[in-house]
Amino acid sequence: MNTKFALLRKIKSETQRGFSLIELLIVVAVILIIAAIAIPNFIRSKMRANESAAVQNLRNINTADTVYLTTYGIGFSTSLGKLGGNTAIVDSNNAGLLDSVLSGTGMTSTKSGYNYTYAVTASAPNGEPVAYSVTADPSNYGVTGERHFFTDQTAIIRFNTSVAATSTDSPI
User: Fold this and answer.
1) Mean pLDDT in the chain?
2) Residue 108 forms beta bridges with which residues?
3) Phi, psi of 164 (to 5 degrees)
4) From CA 118, how far away is CA 151, in angstroms rounded?
5) Within a domain: residue 8?
6) In degrees rounded to 5, what are phi and psi of residue 122?
7) Which of 110, 65, 117, 118 is nearest to 92 (CA)?
8) Which CATH number does the domain housing residue 52 bear?
């Protein structure tokens, strides 16, 4: 009787040397289901991270512009480029208050999936900027972010979910 069971085990082990096609298809299906759940969540979390970075970058710009105003006494900066610049020689044209990516090439920059635009909105009679605005818009709406942000010399950050944010939108 033992030889009969031994023979059956030997036959079974010789015929089952790998996984069946059905077993492999089930494993692939399970992996695809997990991926279908995980990928949209990853994209949403990446957008939220970009939006948080945009808000923090606007705070950094507000702080840098306030420091620029008090340090140089010539009003607010006229561009993002002046808030960044060469930190070896620090002056009103190269304040070294922002990193080189955020300070960009002058009035605009792109960082963490958002485009930042800086504008002087009012000047004193002597030409010194007394008001500015900064907008942060997603580089690729729906992929890098879903909210548009705005701030100005009041340091209140505002947002809009459909169009570019302005001074009349809700604060965050």
Assistant:
1) 88
2) 117
3) -55, 135
4) 10
5) no
6) -155, 145
7) 65
8) 3.30.700
